[in-house]
Structure formats: structure tokens, C-alpha cells
Amino acid sequence: MRLAWHLPGVDEAHQAKEDAFEAIEPVAEAILALPASTPAGFAVKARVLIWGQWPGGQYGETAEEGLHNDYGQRCARLLIESACAAAGVDWRGEPVSGHALPLAAASLADQILAGWREYGTDVGMSDEEASEHTQALGARRYALIDAAEALPATRENVLAKALALAWLDYGEHWRNGQARGAYTIDGRLAFDIDTAICGRMLTEY
Questions:
Q1: How confident is the model at residue 123 (pLDDT cuts 50, 70, 90)?
Q2: What is the spatial distance between Cα 104 and Cα 120, in angstroms, rounded to a whole number?
């Protein structure tokens, strides 16, 4: 075995592997540091486990015998497969035929999440006359909700439509200074979603 290290190209291959790990590590750490709020985002985070659990690149090769790996790898594989299935992609991130969200629907859901966060954390959100910026955020909100409403009623469009509905419910229920427990269940659900998206509690304005 020791003699094998002295064969031509072995040292170079080993160094190339080390260099690849050094290049991947900051990318993986950056992905783990970013919050995930969509199925696609969770799938990206889950796929980072491939690099951590199968550093030699054997994930694809051992797919058929995955349940025979050690316990940590077994749990990681099940998590990766579940997250990727929910996002409609395989472990490489490629769309799975018949399961991937159409680009328009997936993009709209992401736009609603981003728009809701920007709108909800804007200091002038309670007064749309405060600035042109706040008025623009309000106009964007209605445009995104209208776009979700216009999508066909299919399973692929559920996420975008549900987010739009929750955003509408939030706007209709919100009362300044009112505690969460004072709202009905639909209001509490809408406010919980707002808290998750905007990263603030109900009364933080």
C-alpha cells in the first residue's frame, strides 16, 4: 500500500483532491449560513451534506446500497432525498421529470417571499403616503398577489397561491399593538408566517 503512493501521478491526484476541498469549503459554509425559506433552498442546504458525508464523491455510486452505509450517512441520505424530492430535483440539483415546479411558479413564490420581507420591514409600511419607496413596495405587493391569483389552479402553483393568500390575510387582520392571542386562528397563522418571513415579532414596528 505504501508503495502505491510512489506511483506516477498519485501525489498530484492527492494534492488536487486537497485543493478541491479547500475550494469547496467556503462555498459550503456560505450556503449553510444563508437562511432557507423555499423547497429549493432547503434542497440546496441538504445537498451540502453530500460534500460532508461522502468526501470521496461516492454518493452517486453507492445510491443503491445507501441503507447499508453507517447510521450518519443513512440519515443524511434520507434527508437529502426527501428535500430534493420536495423541490423536484435530483441530488445533482437537476429537475426531475414530472416533479419540478415550473420556473414561473417557483420564481413567483420566491418573489413573494422577498417582496413580503421588504414590504414588512419597511419603516413606512403603516403609511403608504410616507415615501415613493413605500408606495412602490405597496404596488409591488398587489402586483405579486394578482400574479399568483392569475396562475392556474394546479399543485405546482399551490406555494405561490398560498403565500399570496397569507399575505392578504395578514394585511386584512393586522391591528397596531394587538397581541397575537387576540386574533382568530387564520390571523394567528398569517402573523406566524409574517414573523418567519420578516424575522420580527407581531408588535415590532
A1: low
A2: 24
Q: What is the DSSP letter of 173?
A: H
Across 172-186, average pLDDT: 74
Q: Whole-angstrom Cα distance, residue 87 to residue 168?
A: 25
pLDDT at residue number 127: 56
Per-residue cell: 160: 405561490
Buried b / exposed e over 35-63, threshold 16 CB at 10 Å, is eeebbbbbbbbbbbbbbebbeeeebeeee
Rounded to whole angstroms, how far apart are CA atoms 45 and 28? 9
DSSP 64-133: GGGGGS-HHHHHHHHHHHHHHHHHTB-TTSPBPTTTSPPHHHHHHHHHHHHHHHHHHT-TTTT-TTS-HH
Residues in CB range of 53: below 8 A, 6 or more apart: 59, 72, 73, 76, 77
Average pLDDT, the chain: 75
